[in-house]
Amino acid sequence: MDHAADAHRTDLMTITRFVLNEQSKYPESRGDFSILLNHIVLGCKFVCSVVNKAGLAKLIGLAGETNVQGEEQKKLDVLSNEVFIKALVSSGRTCILVSEEDEEATFVEPSRRGRYCVVFDPLDGSSNIDCGVSIGTIFGIYMVKDDHEPTLDDVLQPGKNMLAAGYCMYGSSCTFVLSTGTGVNGFTLDPSLGEFILTHPDIKIPKKGKIYSVNEGNVRNWDGPTAKYVEKCKFPQDGSSAKSLRYIGSMVADVHRTLLYGGIFMYPADKKSPNGKLRVLYEVFPMSFLMEQAGGQAFTGKQRALDLVPTKIHERSPIFLGSHDEVEEIKALYAAEEKKA
């Protein structure tokens, strides 16, 4: 590989170039979506930079303490939230924002309003920051019709109505995964250029997988189908090899691995959390959207995840998502359970 020549390449498919190429397929497009996405990407670059310095900030006494001016240093998740709110409002293309960090939805003032609703978790897995585990930002985008004043109902829609979804993972490299409804593409941040480069075109999840991902610490509270499925993973009756357990506890990292290697990610309902733990709008929906676009499935234990209609912005749901065949097995176990009842 000629590294010297590579250093001067300008024919790389950057995320900006990719989005503009996609835009050119729609002659009626006004470029609003491209501008919005640009602002999300900028927010991710900013958060990536801050996350990379988080350990250092702690070493030199910054994070969560008071600085010389008497101002308290912001925790990373609060800072990330502010970064995305500002980036999204300043794009001039959004009307409603729903963040995991804010109890209420943010309605953008009319003078800066656009046609899009963005739902997001600014820093998912933030409890893992101090030990250097991958964390990330998750987002989903809806479009609002121009014919009315925006209301919460514009956001409380089933996930299948999403226009686009994605996540940015801050780990050993910074990875941005995006779907605009025509497949899934992955981009990696090149720090020397400050640009996301297309490194994983048209991601397809394997039909079957060898990895299951779940918090087994909750096993005694699980329902029958989940317990049976995990039992089958560990002690298969058909002579096949047992599946490997991989659980990071950071949804972005666990889903990213599942997307690339296949398998299943589960956060089932249990006796402690009968409605599951993950939030529908900005965790379950975007990840389910990406899984389906990559050829996988997403199931709540009762229905296709993207058919759920949320009634509150911070509503929770159980979720099983991943390879097509693995989710089929879970569905069969729930169907059998229902027949018994």
Short description:
Helix content is 32%, strand content 21%.
What does it look like?
This is Fructose-1,6-bisphosphatase, cytosolic. Residues 13-201 form the Fructose-1-6-bisphosphatase class I N-terminal domain. The chain is an alpha+beta fold. It contains 9 helices and 15 strands. The chain has helices at 3-6, 15-23, 32-52, 54-59, 76-90, 224-234, 251-261, 280-293, 324-340; strands spanning 94-99, 106-107, 116-124, 135-143, 164-170, 174-179, 185-190, 195-200, 211-213, 244-245, 264-267, 278-279, 297-299, 316-317, 319-322. The strands form 3 sheets. The chain has an 8-stranded mixed sheet, with helices on both faces. Strand 5 and strand 6 (174-179) form a beta hairpin. Helix 2 packs antiparallel against helix 3 and helix 6 crosses helix 9 (324-340). It is globular.
